[in-house]
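== Fold encoding ==
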Amino acid sequence: MAATTCSHHSPLPLPSSHNFNRHNPLVNPTVSATKKGLTQTRYRKGAIKCAREFSDFVGGDLLKPDLGKWLADVEEHKAIAIYSPHEGGYEGRYLNRLRYQGYRFLDLSARGLGDPETTLTKIHPVCPAHVGKQPIARWYFPPEVDYRLSLLPPDAVGLVVWILEAKVLSKAELQFLALLPTLRPKVRVIAECGNWRKFVWTPLKDIAGLTANEAV
């Protein structure tokens, strides 16, 4: 489910919790001693060095005891932007944790989503491919979110709308997704907004440029 890295749009900003340092320009790399006896390399101009952690050497994400915080943040913010490693697979454990809580899922790709407000909450037209032989037709489909909500079993907690490749969406489209749980209280939104060297997340309203007061 990991999003690809190529896009003609400008990349979305990473959450503020990510710490990376841009070093001063040097002609040649130099090595200096640190307090812990380790070595720290300073790079040429424009290089970025990310701080290393213990999990980087032993396989990573599976050692992070953050599933409780993940569930708490989903319930608190209701719309989350996630950043997963390029190789993919890590987000599955977070998806499964929501499934264990009783959520059902609606997986959609942002590249074929169209206008999110129309597709998710209104009756919308779809023109099937006519391949040059059939007449051009227009079919009408029910709102994706409302239709799935009507089909939820009685024991379901809610519906998670999982958006793949959400980094191609505009800021206005991301703002609507951030406000969707306000319009549909049983809906939670998870948007894959990019990639990072470990699985991290942040409230979608921060990525979309909404303040806390606007999102309420």
About this structure: The chain has a mean pLDDT of 78. The CA atoms of residues 103 and 153 lie 10 Å apart.
